[in-house]
Design brief:
5-stranded antiparallel β-sheet; 20 strands; OB fold (Dihydrolipoamide Acetyltransferase, E2P); 2 domains; alpha+beta; Rossmann fold; 9 helices; 6-stranded mixed β-sheet
């Protein structure tokens, strides 16, 4: 029997749960250019789902089709079981928070938040109550009489969020919602956004090109490239088990090795790479014929760096420190190995006794990694 808690937290694992949003064979063409190319997608109620990809991959076009600002060239979009293709934006159960926030500069915070309810003709008592509740939720009650120019970037972001949520949409669409914030504030606001979403239970769909933002926020991520989904999964699945070189290279950093399978056991693979004396022993069995060309993805944080030669002949390399980046909490080493430059990250767990780094430029070092650390890719 499936774990009920797991199904509640991850409804996409339950075949009996109906998706809240469904895209069926959706495409969007602008003249001869295809922005979204025949995609299928299912998003479940209460998810915080991210569309992640580089500029021009089609993620914002897809968001605008969900909002009703663009019509699909083909295919169907369903929200809560209703086909949205012919439903205008103002009649859809969605609201959108734009990257620029688009606050009215002449209105106070509470007037900005109340604007949509006033346009809908709600009575004053209901407007006042809902605005009060929303301002309390985003912790802006004391700033209600201020105008946008008197607010910080993070406060403006929360006003825009309150204005979008006060109408109680079933779905909130967020286009690069944190892009205007500095790094520290962006990291703080990510958790605020998650807490608000969890309290309200509204389905959030976030468009972003920031990998760390998507990894932090999301229940699941769809990685887009050239109008198509390369992979859909949880942050852990996307990062630890990429299904292609495109995903492995886009999500975080990955060292790539080209090679051929020289041994295919029931519980392991051995891959000989094009680098001499670089053999990968991989302890998770994958059904690949011997002689097949593959690529190995190895994350920088999975690699150990040492001046001592490791034992064995597999999963090790000898190289020279080419560059060093000291980032405080970790150090980044770029290591020259034959014709490759490999990236290795090492946490600075102990404070050094002096200002010298553990490894210096031009040091000869050894790299090693566990048999479970590598990912085998065939495309």
């Amino acid at each position: 029997m499936p774990d009920q808690k797991k199904l509640i937290e991850r409804p996409w694992l339950d075949p009996d749960t109906e998706p809240f949003i469904k895209l069926q064979s959706v495409s969007k063409h602008f003249g001869g250019f295809t922005a979204v190319d025949n995609v299928d997608l299912e998003i479940y109620k209460g998810e915080l789902f991210s569309l992640l990809g580089a500029s021009g991959c089609g993620k914002t076009t897809l968001l605008r089709m969900l909002a009703g600002f663009e019509e699909p060239s083909s295919g169907n979009i369903y929200i809560d079981g209703v086909n949205m293709n012919d439903v205008p934006p103002y009649e859809r159960p969605v609201n959108m928070m734009f990257q620029s926030y688009a606050l009215f500069p002449h209105m106070t915070v509470e007037q900005n938040v109340a604007y949509g309810l006033q346009r809908d003709g709600k009575d004053k008592a209901e407007i006042d109550q809902r605005v009060e509740e929303m301002l309390a939720m985003v912790e802006l009650t004391q700033f209600r009489k201020r105008k946008p120019h008197q607010l910080s970037g993070g406060q403006k972001q929360r006003v825009a969020l309150a204005r979008a949520l006060v109408k109680q949409p079933k779905v909130l669409l967020l286009d690069e919602p944190l892009a205007a914030l500095d790094k520290r504030l962006r990291e703080q606001t990510q958790f605020e956004l998650m807490n608000i979403q969890d309290r309200l239970g509204v389905t959030f769909i976030v468009v972003t090109h920031d990998q760390e933002e998507a990894m932090t926020l999301s229940t699941r991520i769809a990685v887009m490239d050239n109008g198509r989904f390369m992979q859909i999964g949880t942050p852990t699945e996307i990062y630890e088990f990429p299904q292609s070189r495109i995903v492995a290279n886009f999500i975080g950093n990955a060292n790539m090795f080209e090679g051929r399978v020289i041994e295919n056991g029931p519980d392991h693979l051995v891959v000989q790479t094009t680098q001499p004396e670089c053999e990968f022993y991989i302890d998770h069995g994958i059904s690949i014929q011997e002689g097949t060309k593959v690529w190995i993805a190895l994350r920088p944080e999975k690699i150990r760096i040492s001046k001592t030669k490791p034992e064995g002949k597999s999963n090790r390399l000898k190289g020279t420190v080419h560059d060093i980046g000291y980032l405080g909490k970790l150090s980044i080493y770029r290591v020259s190995v034959d014709d490759l430059i490999l990236e290795v990250t090492s946490p600075n767990q102990a404070r050094p006794k002096d200002s010298n780094l553990a490894f210096d430029w031009e040091d000869e070092i050894y790299l090693s990694w566990d048999a479970s650390s590598s990912v085998v890719l065939t495309k």
